[in-house]
From TrEMBL:
This is MYND-type domain-containing protein. The lineage of its organism: Eukaryota, Viridiplantae, Streptophyta, Embryophyta, Tracheophyta. Residues 253-295 form the MYND-type domain. Keywords: Metal-binding, Zinc, Zinc-finger. GO terms for molecular function: zinc ion binding. The keyword Transit peptide does not apply.
Length: 339
């Protein structure tokens, strides 16, 4: 009977097995779901590493843990990149840029993902441009950051929509437009609330009782964290002393994982000056989760000087784009900006 079953498997054409493996790699909930199948037999291992299978791998299939990082894991991600996997380009790009400090290679991989309209990659590149990550403060390119952020927002990335709204409200890298900025901020909040409505509906159905909607734990908005952010949180959590020794800080939103690439790269909270963020999106998430109850009241911080005040000149100093050309978004493209 065992021999018969083996013969039945061997009789399957390679194309059928590859099709099944493509479905598995695109829907797996963890790397082990996929890797365990590759260990079944030599044929399965060979077909599992077929470029078509690797090109379909989803982010959870590529969700390598930082504690398990090794040359074999790096090689597997490179195989996926060479197979044309957009998600692998983004994940390996982030790891190389922030964790391995290979800025050029990391940015190049993220750019390849961005060209294929990968919203998180576009947003990450926008933050690199806004913060001047990997270079000096003068290396910031606010107009390029705005253009990348606008494209990511058009693709539905909520944090990009929020960042874009603040840019328009503050005139940060773009001509100020309070009305449009406010509209985008409302849209970002509405999308976040809409994302938890299915959870809320399920809770009401299962518990069969009414409760105050404001008592619902809207922190669940952040339940799905991208695997590369989980990787960076774990990676730098194991190496936190090395960062602090260089005078660098992590983004205070615990589920982001981005570190500073130079001193005073991130902006501090204007209220307490004790926390710092790589973006407006992280600031909004962290405020909702816990910082709103930790931030010092206005009586405490009013009149005090924030240590990195030089980083705040983006609102009124040289960072602001001044011009009489209007900027808009038409069919996902930014118009009125020369790139």
């Amino acid at each position: 009977m065992k021999k018969l079953r083996s013969d039945l498997f061997e009789s399957l054409h390679d194309d059928i097995v590859i099709c099944i493996l493509c479905k598995l790699s695109s829907t797996a909930s963890s790397p082990s779901d996929f890797i365990s199948v590759l260990h079944t037999c030599k044929r399965m291992n060979k077909l599992g590493l077929h470029p078509l299978v690797l090109s379909k791998s989803c982010s959870e299939t590529l969700a390598i843990r930082a504690k398990n990082w090794c040359e074999e894991a790096h090689r597997f991600l490179k195989l996926c990149v060479n197979s044309g996997n957009t998600e692998a380009n983004y994940i390996l790009g982030m790891i190389r840029f922030y964790c391995l400090q290979n800025r050029t290679s990391g940015a190049s991989l993220m750019a390849k993902a961005a060209v294929r309209s990968h919203a998180p990659a576009l947003y990450s590149l926008a933050l690199i441009q806004f913060n001047g990550s990997g270079g000096l403060k003068n290396d910031k390119d606010l107009r390029a950051g705005f253009a990348l952020c606008a494209r990511s927002a058009f693709l539905g990335h909520v944090n990009a929509i929020r960042e874009l709204g603040h840019c328009l409200q503050d005139g940060y890298g773009v001509r100020k437009n309070l009305t449009e900025g406010r509209r985008l901020l409302v849209q970002a909040n509405a999308r976040e609330v809409a994302s938890v409505l299915p959870i809320l509906e399920n809770k009401l159905f299962n518990e069969n009782k009414l409760f105050n909607v404001y008592e619902f734990n809207f922190n669940r908005i952040n339940e799905h964290i991208h695997p590369v952010n989980r990787f960076m949180v774990e990676w730098f959590g194991l190496r936190e002393k090395g960062l602090s020794g260089q005078g660098l800080r992590m983004c205070s939103y615990k589920e982001c994982g981005r570190p500073e690439t130079r001193r005073n790269e991130f902006r501090r909270c204007s209220g307490c000056g004790k926390v710092n963020y790589c973006s407006r999106g992280c600031q909004a998430h962290d405020w909702r989760v816990h910082h709103k109850v930790e931030c010092a009241p206005i009586e405490v911080w009013m009149g005090h000087t924030v240590d990195d005040v030089e980083e705040e000149d983006n609102m009124n100093g040289d960072d602001r784009f001044v011009g009489d050309r209007t900027v808009g978004i038409v069919d996902g493209e930014v118009v009125g900006i020369d790139m």
